[in-house]
Specification:
By secondary structure, the chain is mostly helical. The protein has helices at about 10-15, 75-100. The radius of gyration is 26 Å and the shape is elongated.
Length: about 120
């Protein structure tokens, strides 16, 4: 049976294979980064009894559309656009149903979701 001796330099050499190296990074072509002060305290009703809830971040209404993520390629953009169009359609139909037939048939399209069995 053989034994392997591990020294700190051996560990450092092995871990150096996993260091992140940025290639092709041109600092003159980077988009301007907007700095936002998130030092605000959480609102009084912010959940504190759940783990891993991030701190409150106010909405940045001054952010340009080029800084917002909307997919890396045309396929992702089409997918996201169709997905959110479906969400808007679903919400619109639900609102229309609630204003018309939902008054007379309140339990017709209700179903249990995630843990409400």
């Amino acid at each position: 049976m053989s034994t392997t001796t591990i020294t700190p330099s051996t560990v450092r050499d092995v871990l150096s294979d996993y260091t992140i190296r940025l290639t092709g990074d041109n600092p003159t072509l980077q988009a301007p980064q907007t700095t936002i002060d998130y030092s605000n305290t959480n609102p009084p009703d912010w959940p504190r009894n759940r783990r891993r809830v991030p701190d409150y971040q106010p909405i940045d209404r001054n952010r340009g559309s080029e800084e917002r993520p909307n997919g890396d390629n045309p396929g992702e953009r089409i997918f996201l656009s169709l997905m959110f169009a479906g969400v808007v359609l679903n919400a619109s139909v639900a609102k229309a149903w609630g204003a018309t037939g939902g008054r007379y048939f309140p339990n017709m399209f209700k179903y249990a979701i995630g843990g409400e069995w």
